[in-house]
Amino acid sequence: MKIDESALFELTGEKEVFNIPQKLMRMLIDETERKRLISELEKYEHGISCSFQEFFESEIADRKTFKQDYTPQSIGEICSNIVGTGDYLEIAAGTGSLAINGQYKETSKLYLTEFSEIALPFLIINMLLRKYDAVISHEDSLTGEVFATYKTTDGKFEVIDKVDDYKAQRIVMNPPYSAKWEPTEEPIFWEYGTPPKAKADFAFILKAFDKLDDNGKMAVVLPHGVLFRGNKEQEIRQNLLDRGYISGVIGLPDKLFANTSIPVCILVLSKQKTDSVMFIDASSEFDKVGKNNILTDDIIAKISGTFDNKKEIDRYSNLVGLDKIRDNDYNLNIPRYVDTFEPEPIIDICQVQREIMECNAEIEKTSAELSGMFRKLGLPNDFKIL
């Protein structure tokens, strides 16, 4: 049994969908109400996918203001496979779908940030239901302003002081795409470049990268524009590439998300420097289900295995040295490095000529037979049936 709109109406006593997030937050703060809420929610299904996925997608995801799109479980699995085990940070965590798909050890910790007051209670509840050891920061990840900080430990919940100066071993993130922002003066931007006001994609990337520890790895779900847009974004790509911090680019099919058809990519960064970038074009690897595309277990395994093993596959993947990328002016657009062109089959001209001669012979034979029939009927050879 899955959590749906009617179940949340009953649990919260609310009659309007837009009131549910605020009511859930009030229930979480009140210990008695929180225990009752979690006890009731534990009666529902809670697998490795977000407990509120269908409700959040269909009812309250705010695409216009916060560009909220629930990250498909398959993308979460790929990101998790790429970055591996360890303590996780997820910026712009939403309801926690990427974190839920993470590869945790019992000692692993989660640090999650989220700006939206709509998503925040669902994120906290997802951590409580799974008894994850998590710090959840209600904050603006671009300005650094923290509004409140919460902690879940083995199903327990508390409000805590904000956590400063943390470093993460693993970072996964699906931030709002190409959002507007107000640039700030920070060392990370002085070092790599300041992203443009109209597109905050690299602001999220650099903010996260600043939280990555010396052996850390991160996977970020992004629109393809970050791979090839010029000016300030080209400067940032150049600085990251020249220092060996970008290790992979994975192109995924379109129509993987419930509410948008745009194709996305996964940009992989690592503090373990590299002199090459692994490109994978998985844009044609999907199964069709209704109006959407899905990534099967086999497709997920192929993408993850190809990346981990740096395996080059014709028309699918290519390990590219930095010199070639520099020659392309630091453009990371996947078609520049993975040629998916399918050549036309070679035509055997002699075979075609033989087939034409056979057809002509058959036509002559049929014409002779028809002429014979016409003569027997006393009709002229040029007689036509209308």
Describe the protein.
- The protein is an alpha/beta fold and about 375 residues long.
- It has 2 domains: about 5-335, 3-Layer(aba) Sandwich (Rossmann fold), CATH 3.40.50.150; about 345-385, no CATH class.
- The protein is built from 14 helices and 13 strands.
- The chain has helices spanning about 5-10, 20-30, 30-40, 55-60, 65, 75-85, 95-100, 120-130, 185-190, 200-210, 230-240, 295-310, 320-325, 350-375; strands at about 90, 110-115, 135-140, 145-155, 155-160, 170-175, 210-225, 245-250, 265-270, 275-280, 285-290, 290-295, 315-320.
- It has an 11-stranded mixed sheet with strand order 5-4-3-2-1-6-7-9-8-10-13, sandwiched between helices. It has a two-stranded antiparallel sheet with strand order 11-12.
- A hairpin with a 2-residue loop joins strand 11 (about 285-290) and strand 12.
- The longest helix has 28 residues, at about 350-375.
- The relative contact order is 0.09.
- The model has no long low-confidence stretch (mean pLDDT about 85).
Indicate the topology.
Layout: H1 5-12, H2 20-29, H3 31-41, H4 53-60, H5 63-66, H6 73-83, E1 88-91, H7 97-100, E2 110-114, H8 120-129, E3 134-139, E4 146-153, E5 156-160, E6 168-173, H9 187-192, H10 201-209, E7 212-223, H11 232-242, E8 246-251, E9 264-270, E10 276-281, E11 287-289, E12 292-294, H12 297-309, E13 317-321, H13 322-327, H14 349-376
Parallel strand pairs: 1-2, 1-6, 2-3, 6-7, 8-10
Antiparallel strand pairs: 3-4, 4-5, 7-9, 8-9, 10-13, 11-12
Helix pairs in contact: 2-3, 2-8, 6-12
